[in-house]
Amino acid sequence: MKQRLRILITSDEPWSPVWHTQLHYAHQLSENHDVVYMEPPEKWNVWRILTLFKLGVKQISPSLRVIRYFNLLPSNIGSAATVVNDKVNMWRSKWVFGGKKPDIVWHFDPFRSFHLYREGDVTHLYHVIDPFYDKRLDRKLAQYSDLVVVTSPRFVEYYKDLNSNTMLIQQGVDPLLVDGFNDLENEDVRQMVLLGSLTDKVNYGWIREAVSRTSMRLLIIGPDLIRDDNVRLEFKALCQLSEVEWTGALSPDEYLPLLRPGSLGLIAYRTDIKDEQVMRSPLKVISYISRKMPVLTNIDCEIPELEGPAINRVDSLDEFISGTMAYKSQGPSFDNKIVHSYLLSRRYDLLIMSILDRLKTENERNE
Are 38 and 68 in contact (CB under 8 A)? Predict the structure, then answer.
């Protein structure tokens, strides 16, 4: 596999100030490769067909560009529309690459893009970061990819049954955060932080109870994606507390300075949908611990070696409240040495190297 690659990333997440895993990989890959990030399409309407030849390329950096997937046909009319739309977007992405095919199609998107560059010597990688096992094209993408990368250990066996060339790569961390970890000074603060997208699945009731019982400041960072009216009322009641500040959506450059070392990072999901939620690998835990923040969570963050040294996992509201009360009275419980050792092993540059090396080995085996 040549040194500098052309990589097309297909994603179910748009390019935005909120950096999901897909955006982190795009940014890190663009440090050494030419990357085109294809974000999901806008809602189809007949008038949008007139913009087919308007690519709307967003230049993020000299080696990272963003284009939007274009639905020439509405995707809900059947599999034939998926084939046509993929062919259209193959042409569009090839134009952005200067008339050349990508070397790798890095699929994060389980809803479209299967038919992109299926002819020829293009390598296909399917990267599973959420529970997509019931999504359209998931099985097909897994079966016909050169490599499947799985973020959660819970899904390794499922995908190995579909594709023997499956590897586990858990959530990563920006190398700059790792390099600056030891320079962070522990602060004597008593505040809580809730980071990430504010959805219907977050347990705002638990968090409100924790703020009310401890009277500690709560900083909320993330976009409002709430759809359920009852959940919105719970979130509104939380924000009305005098101790609560909500910043809205911020980019990593904007929110990282607000994550003061020693603050308590919260991860709280509704217990009535816990069966679904426990299958996630929350990226926010990496953001917390990379800023020397202990974590209080009611789901499995899938980092057992940090449960105790940095992560306090609880199962009930009483335990959640006890965790916040203990933090307020005793201060943060956080083992810098153990956490730093873990972060060193999760650098994105090392994870990407492992993935590309595995692809190279697989390609050489098939030659």
Answer: yes
Report yes or no: 106 and 83 within 8 Å, Cβ to Cβ.
no
Classify residue 9 by burial, with Cβ atoms within 10 Å: 0-12, 13-18, 19+.
buried
Q: What sign has the CA pseudo-torsion 16, 250, 128, 277?
A: negative
Count of C-beta atoms within a 10 Å radius of residue 263 = 24
d(CA 217, CA 239): 11
3 state DSSP class of 346: coil
- How high is the pLDDT of residue 54? 66
Cβ contacts of 183 within 8 Å, gap of 6 or more: none
Kindly report, residue by residue over 2-21, the tens digit of the pLDDT: 689 999 999 989 998 878 89
Q: Which two tokens stand for residue 52?
A: 């087919």
Strands across the sheet containing 104-107: 58-61, 64-68, 34-39, 6-10, 104-107, 123-128, 147-150, 166-168
Distance CA 241, CA 226 (A): 19
Residue 173, φ and ψ in degrees, nearest 5: -135, 145
Percentage of the chain lying above the pLDDT 70 cut: 91
3-state DSSP assignment of residue 173: strand
Evaluate whether 75 touches 89 at the Cβ level (below 8 Å): no
- pLDDT value of residue 48: 61
pLDDT band at 277 (very low <50, low <70, confident <90, very high): very low
What does the pLDDT read at residue 76? 65
User: Tens digits of per-residue pLDDT, 68-115?
Assistant: 988 876 666 767 788 888 888 998 899 999 999 999 999 998 888 888
Does the pLDDT at position 324 exceed 60? yes
- Give the whole-angstrom CA distance, residue 156 versus residue 162: 10
Transcribe 90-123 into DSSP letters.
HHHHHHHTTS---SEEEE--SSS-TTTT-SSS-E
Residue 187's pLDDT is: 84
Report whether 327 contacts 296 (CB < 8 A). yes
Closest CA to 195 of 218, 172, 165: 218
